[in-house]
Specification:
The chain is mostly beta strands and 174 residues long. It has no helices and 17 strands. It is globular, with a radius of gyration of 16 Å.
Length: 174
């Protein structure tokens, strides 16, 4: 279990007994997103770096730095699936990074104000924006498609067996 608090401390706890495994204090760069892939933990930082933690959670090392993408490269959404890291950097850049081959691909979500949610499902990223726009990104081609707008802003997203559900600010579920 990874818990990040307002004091920029990351506590990693054993999920069985909730006893601390490790603690990291970040003074220079804030964690803005965390993702587990099985037992592997990844962190996205405000400065645009993505790091992975060692198997015993005693240390971490940077594996990808996206700070050269734009003026703002903060990692706001981080997902790991099928040996790839998917991240939203800055306002509207969607990044795919193959961990084994170290190949990186990028697409811009043109017209998106700022990304609200991001889910990976069956070779597609479903991404919503604070301006209510919904995008799909084909993960093989990295082609983005604007699917239209929701009635209200999506504040949360979750995978279910038949797809993705979105929790809207209006109280509705889409």
């Amino acid at each position: 279990l990874a818990i990040y608090d307002a004091k920029n401390s990351l506590n990693i706890l054993n999920k069985k007994d909730l006893k601390p495994i490790s603690k990291f204090d970040f003074k220079t760069d804030e964690i803005t997103s965390l993702a587990f892939d099985g037992a592997n933990l990844y962190a996205g930082f405000a400065g645009g770096e993505i790091a992975n933690f060692s198997d015993d959670f005693s240390s971490f090392a940077g594996m990808l730095n996206l700070s050269n993408l734009s003026f703002e490269s903060q990692i706001t959404h981080l997902r790991v699936a099928n040996g790839k890291i998917y991240a939203v950097a800055g306002k509207n850049a969607f990044i795919s990074y193959d961990i084994a081959s170290k190949k990186q691909a990028r697409t811009n979500l043109d017209g998106a104000y700022r990304i609200a949610t991001c889910q990976i499902l069956n070779g597609t990223a479903l991404i919503t924006s604070w301006d209510r726009s919904v995008f799909s990104v084909n993960l093989s081609t990295m082609k983005a498609k604007n699917l239209g707008r929701l009635k209200s802003v999506a504040l949360s997203a979750a995978k279910i067996s038949s797809g993705v559900i979105l929790g809207l600010a209006s109280g509705e579920i889409a």
